[in-house]
Amino acid sequence: MVRWVVHCHVLALSFAFASGITTLHAAEPPATLRWETNDKPQPIGSPKAVTGGRITGYIDTYPLTLRQVGPDATGAFRVLLDENDMSLVTMHPNTETWIPMLASHWALDPDGRTVYYRLNPAARWSDKQPVKATDYAFTLEFMRSPHIQSPWSNEYYTKTIEGIQTFQEKAGTEVISIRLKEPTLDRILKTNIKPMPRHFYGKLDAGFVTKFNWKIPPNVGPYTLSTLDKGRRVVFKRKTDWWAKDLPYFKHRFNVDEVVLKVVRDIQIAFEYLKAGQLDIMTLTNPEFWKPGSSDDVFAKGYVHKLQAYNDQPRADYALILNSSYGPFQDQRVRQAFAYAMNVQRVIDELLKDGYQRLQGISQGYGSFTAPGVKARPFDLAKADELFKQAGWDKRNSEGIRVKDGQTLTVTLSYAFPNMTPRFVILQEDARKAGIDLKLQTMDPALAYKSFRDKAHQIAFFSWSIPYRPEYRSRFHSSFANKPQTSNFSNTASPVLDQLIEEYEHASDDRKRIEKAHAIQNFVFQDSSYIPLFEVPYYRLAYWSWIQFPEVPGTKSTDGLPFFDSATGGLFWVDRDRQESVMAARKRGERIAARTWIDDTFRVK
Prior knowledge:
Layout: E1 3-5, E2 14-16, E3 54-59, H1 76-83, E4 89-91, E5 98-100, E6 103-108, E7 114-119, H2 133-144, H3 151-159, E8 161-168, E9 174-180, H4 187-191, H5 198-201, H6 208-211, E10 223-229, E11 233-238, E12 258-263, H7 267-276, E13 281-283, H8 287-290, E14 304-310, E15 318-322, H9 332-340, H10 344-352, E16 357-358, H11 381-390, E17 395-396, E18 402-404, E19 407-408, E20 410-415, H12 421-433, E21 437-442, H13 445-453, E22 459-463, H14 473-476, H15 495-505, H16 510-527, E23 530-532, E24 534-535, E25 538-544, E26 547-548, E27 573-574, H17 576-588, E28 596-599
Parallel strand pairs: 3-12, 14-28, 20-21, 20-22
Antiparallel strand pairs: 1-2, 4-5, 6-7, 7-9, 8-9, 10-11, 11-12, 13-25, 14-25, 15-22, 15-23, 16-24, 17-18, 18-19, 26-27
């Protein structure tokens, strides 16, 4: 049993954390704490914004569950649910200063691993229940429970967080302290957890996964999930009495009454729906959609506008991920040869152009944390041939495909978005010159993600979300290799890399941490289970012109259209008068002002 004493002046105050359960104590937090807050954060919303209206977007697959942890609780829909939650504080996307959220104040303990948070007494769940200190204690119990079937959560909340204590100030305000097992430079980031509603989940047991598959949990964010139309759409409604609506950072945000997300499994069909008026807005991930259409389409007539907004943020690890447990890929030389056989630059030159560039490796865009010497392997058939021969793949059959011990070098690339097929066809063509029979397999997005987490793939095309600092454990640590429902898609398992990850996470200063980050990136480059593809320094949207944005449409870290995210989301609104005039002009076939908006506020010069 682990015990620790907060301060000697808090008389005999010590608690046990083995179970992760704590109770609210009458004792006050240490009187010596130096509380911090930020009551005047730089606003990102527009005073011109008005509330009301509805917008219709799309999701590419219907969720497999409403749980946010455990089997199948991943993918794009999970991101929407997570964004509609809130943590204790958040980092301002432009100024990188901390902003109050569920906590009104915070204080750092001199021990280097404990943070105290004063909870906002106004915070409420969507079922009107107050957010309590005991909900944070329950988070620890919940995330450590084997019943949730989430190995990553179990490990993180057990190995990273030592315990949570609860206090009550004389005025009645609740305070929690979260103590990490090791000192860290990022203790606010690592302790900035979300509460779990104890009153909703009750006692955890072996039936958790099934019991909560389709129950809508209460949340603390600006919207609530109101409608589930199975296989067709989901609907989120704005909380008119949201507890945080008057906090300074949320002024003029989360304006739309209803967000409808239709299920459209093909991005090309989604684009046609947009032009037909069945969708109001979408992200233009395909460069083909950005090109001018006919002189008579909805863009030329001014009904639908385009936005290209530059950002300045770490880049997603947009990559082909080789499963190193698959036969040929067990040999590092084969993985390296495969990287040389991928003609990524040809895809950029022939299809993407216009701002796209080669991603050089993982952890790009993190300033000093990005290893300067890591450069993606170029297309080089001679080097690929040399490495294949070293690995014993020196013979070819009558079709030019390499053969070893009677096995052909046939591998399958699995991906979730059909619009990627033209890009991968180019890779497929040039891979054949290297003696590789590359098969292409499109999958439903939810099923693809499940397959990748279950390690049922040979090559996965995937793009990871972007943390504030590079994160390596869940994707590269051996504790998540060769296990289902984990994020180590490459099945990387190396004691050397494990040690580097441990040293990175426990570094005592930024200099040491940067050194270990560089070492990890170099290891991943040599290991060659990740083949970096493309990056682009902006996002693009198409939207019916009654949707309005602030003068600066996003933030430095905006990447797409965050509907609910507490840090960057909800900046748009519906101009219903304009909506009526646009619909009337469309009915008459009348042109209005067309617009392609290029915002370079955050462009890296």
